């Protein structure tokens, strides 16, 4: 409005667009997950589906999942994670006798400085896949795989 006589005024509409800044980090729905998987589960079997959300918008809310460098080389060899969906699958056959428990530290990042962390504990359950072994310990030395006993040996001779 001007100070003239008569006063004149004018109006304008100002449109302000607020753009998103990547100021929120991803948040896991569950930060500690424990699952059991039989040791005979086939390669490609789903182990766990992780879920994370990000309060930012657009590309600032795109979450990338990956294993921490702190997990064992065996776990990295046995398990895979889809970097966009957070689905953990079996990459190589499991063997409970080799390792019955695997701790997988998973990170979720949206490109900001600090990723979020979740731990997936995979318990490998036993399947009856090993035949029993017989340990033969002879008191008398065998000859060509045969132990010779006299028929005159007393009862309870070992």
UniProtKB/TrEMBL annotation:
InterPro entries tied to this protein: Cadherin-like_dom, Cadherin-like_sf, Cadherin_CS, Protocadherin/Cadherin-CA
Residues of the Cadherin domain: 2-28, 29-134
Record localization: Cell membrane
Keywords annotated in UniProt: Calcium, Cell adhesion, Cell membrane, Glycoprotein, Membrane, Repeat, Signal, Transmembrane, Transmembrane helix
GO BP of this protein: homophilic cell adhesion via plasma membrane adhesion molecules
Assigned GO CC terms: plasma membrane
Stated name of the protein: Protocadherin-11 X-linked
Organism in which the protein naturally occurs: Curruca communis
Phylogenetic lineage: Eukaryota, Metazoa, Chordata, Craniata, Vertebrata
């Amino acid at each position: 409005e001007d100070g003239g006589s008569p006063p004149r005024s004018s109006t304008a509409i100002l449109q302000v667009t607020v753009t998103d800044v990547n100021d929120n980090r991803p948040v896991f729905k569950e930060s500690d997950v424990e699952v059991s998987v039989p040791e005979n589960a086939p390669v490609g079997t789903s182990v766990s589906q992780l879920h994370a959300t990000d309060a930012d918008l657009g590309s600032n809310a795109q979450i990338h999942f990956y294993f921490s460098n702190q997990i064992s080389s065996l776990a990295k060899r046995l398990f895979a994670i889809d970097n966009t969906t957070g689905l953990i699958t079996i990459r190589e056959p499991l063997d409970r006798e080799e390792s019955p428990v695997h701790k997988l530290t998973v990170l979720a990042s949206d490109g900001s400085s600090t990723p979020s962390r979740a731990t997936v504990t995979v318990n490998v359950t036993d399947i009856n896949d090993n035949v029993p072994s017989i340990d033969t310990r002879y008191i008398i030395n065998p000859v060509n795989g045969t132990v010779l006993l006299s028929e005159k040996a007393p009862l309870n001779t070992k």
